[in-house]
């Protein structure tokens, strides 16, 4: 007999976030294609992704890069 498996609320939340983010992609692309040039749309996507990654890493305790590290 198979044992019952408890599903974590964190796992359900992660799947819900994945569903919302992935599903909204097509809506944003549809709106973006009608109103923005392709390079601007790509630039905005990379800017948003970079800001989210920077915020996540700072939240995890990774120090910000110094000016010397950028050169």
TrEMBL record:
<dbReference type="GO" id="GO:0016020">
    <property type="term" value="C:membrane"/>
</dbReference>
<dbReference type="InterPro" id="IPR000620">
    <property type="entry name" value="EamA_dom"/>
</dbReference>
<protein>
    <submittedName>
        <fullName>Putative DMT superfamily transporter inner membrane protein</fullName>
    </submittedName>
</protein>
<feature type="transmembrane region" description="Helical">
    <location>
        <begin position="7"/>
        <end position="29"/>
    </location>
</feature>
<keyword id="KW-0472">Membrane</keyword>
<keyword id="KW-0812">Transmembrane</keyword>
<feature type="domain" description="EamA">
    <location>
        <begin position="14"/>
        <end position="70"/>
    </location>
</feature>
<keyword id="KW-1133">Transmembrane helix</keyword>
<feature type="transmembrane region" description="Helical">
    <location>
        <begin position="35"/>
        <end position="57"/>
    </location>
</feature>
<dbReference type="Pfam" id="PF00892">
    <property type="entry name" value="EamA"/>
</dbReference>
